[in-house]
Amino acid sequence: MSDICKNWTEWLKKNRFAGQTPEMIEQTTKWLEAVRDVILVYAEIKPYETILDIGCGTGLLAFKALELQECKGKVIFSDMFKDCLDDCKKILDESGVTEGYEILQTPVEHIALPESTVHKAIMRSVLVHVVNKQPAINEIYRVLKPGGKLCAFEPVIRSNTRYWEILDSDYIDRYEDFKHAENEIMENPLDSLCNFDENTLRTNLEIAGFSIPEVKLQEVRSSYVVQENMVREWFVNPPSPNQPSTKQRFLRYFEEETVEKFMAQVQEYLTGRTISLKTNAVFINATK
Ligand SMILES: C[S@@+](CC[C@H](N)C(=O)[O-])C[C@H]1O[C@@H](n2cnc3c(N)ncnc32)[C@H](O)[C@@H]1O
Q: Of 21, 92, 106, 272, which is the most exposed, with the fewest CB atoms less than 10 Å away?
C-alpha cells in the first residue's frame, strides 16, 4: 500500500502531465483550476461549514475551500493514501496554517465519519478509481447532513475519442484487431475507469437517496499537433498508479512485438498531424 501511496503523489505531480508540451501543461493546469472553481461555485461554501474533500490528492480542491472559508469552519482533507495527506500537511505547515482543517485517512467506500456531519462533500476524479461506485456514493450520502451537497467532477473515459478513430485502416497493420481490442478495453465492466457514464452515475445518486441530482455532461474538444515520442508517453504512462498502462492492456490481446509495431505505426502516422480529441466529463451537483 505504501508504494501505491507514494506513487499517487508522484503521479499527481508528474504523470498527469505525461507526454504534454509546456503549452499543454499550462492548458491542463488552467483547466484543472477551472474545474475546481466550478465545483466550488456549486458547493456555495459558507463560513462555519464542514467541508469534506474526498480523495483530496495534493489538495487541489481543499486548499481553495480553505481559502474561501478563511479558516472559519472546517475543511477535511481526506484520502485513502497517507502520502497524499502528508503532502497536504507539509504545505499547510509551510504556509503557517494551524486551524480550520482536519486530515483524515479514509477510503470513500467506508468514510470514517459519523452520519450527517458534513455540509458539503467535494470531489474530483475519485469515483473513476473505484470499481463499485454505488457503495461509495451511499457513503457520501450517509455522512452529509440533510440539505448537504455533493459537488463533484468525474471524467467519462469510455466516451472519449479512441485511437482507432484517429488512425487510417490502410496504414496500420491489424487495424481491425486493434479496434476490437480497444473497444473491449474501453467497455470492460470490471475496470473502474470505463465502467460508468453520466446515466449510471445519475442512477447511483438516485439509489443512494439524492433527490433529482444534477449530472451535467461536458464534452471538450481539443486539437493539437502530435510530436515525436508522444505516442510512447500515451501508451506507457499508467492512467493512475495502480492501473495498467494502455500498452499493458493491449498486451492482454497481442504479443509484445505486435504492440510495439502498432505503437511505432501510430507514432509514424500521427507525427506532425493535427488531431482533434473529444473528452467527456460530468459535473455533479446533488443535494441530500
Ligand atoms: C486523480 S486523483 C485526484 C486528486 C484530487 N482530487 C485532484 O483533483 O487533484 C485521485 C485521488 O483519489 C484518491 N483515491 C483513490 N481511490 C480512493 C478511494 N477508494 N477512497 C479515497 N480516495 C481514493 C487517490 O489517492 C488520489 O488522491
A: 272
The DSSP element (H or E) to which 192 belongs, if any, is: none
Residues 6+ apart with CB under 8 A from 26: none
Confidence of residue 239 (pLDDT cuts 50, 70, 90): confident
Closest Cα to atom 9 of ligand 1: 60
Pocket of ligand 1 (CB under 6 A): 8, 12, 55-57, 60-61, 79-81, 84, 107-109, 124-126, 129-130
Total domain count, the chain: 1
Tell me: the pLDDT tens digits for 116-127? 999 999 999 999
Distance from Cα 19 to the centre of ligand 1, integer Å: 21
pLDDT above 80 (res 71): no
| Calculated CA dihedral for residues 8, 162, 164, 275, nearest 10 degrees | -90
Question: 171-181: b or e for each residue (b if 16 or more CB lie within 10 Å)?
Answer: ebeebeebbeb
Instruction: Give residue 274 CA to ligand 1 midpoint distance, Å.
Output: 32
Least confidently predicted of 40-44, 86-90, 92-96, 161-165 = 92-96
Q: In the structure grid, which three cell numbers stand for residue 111, read together?
A: 468514510
Residue 255 is part of which domain span? 2-287
Element at 30 (helix H, strand E): helix 22-43
CATH code where residue 8 lies = 3.40.50.150
The whole-number average pLDDT for the span 61-79 is 91
Q: pTM, whole model, 2 decimals?
A: 0.90
> 49 to each of 37, 95, 167, how far by Cα in Å?
18, 22, 50
CA of 144 to the centre of ligand 1 (A): 19
Q: How many other C-beta atoms can be found within 10 angstroms of the C-beta atom of residue 62? A: 26
Q: What angle do CA 226, 230, 236 make, to 5 degrees?
A: 150
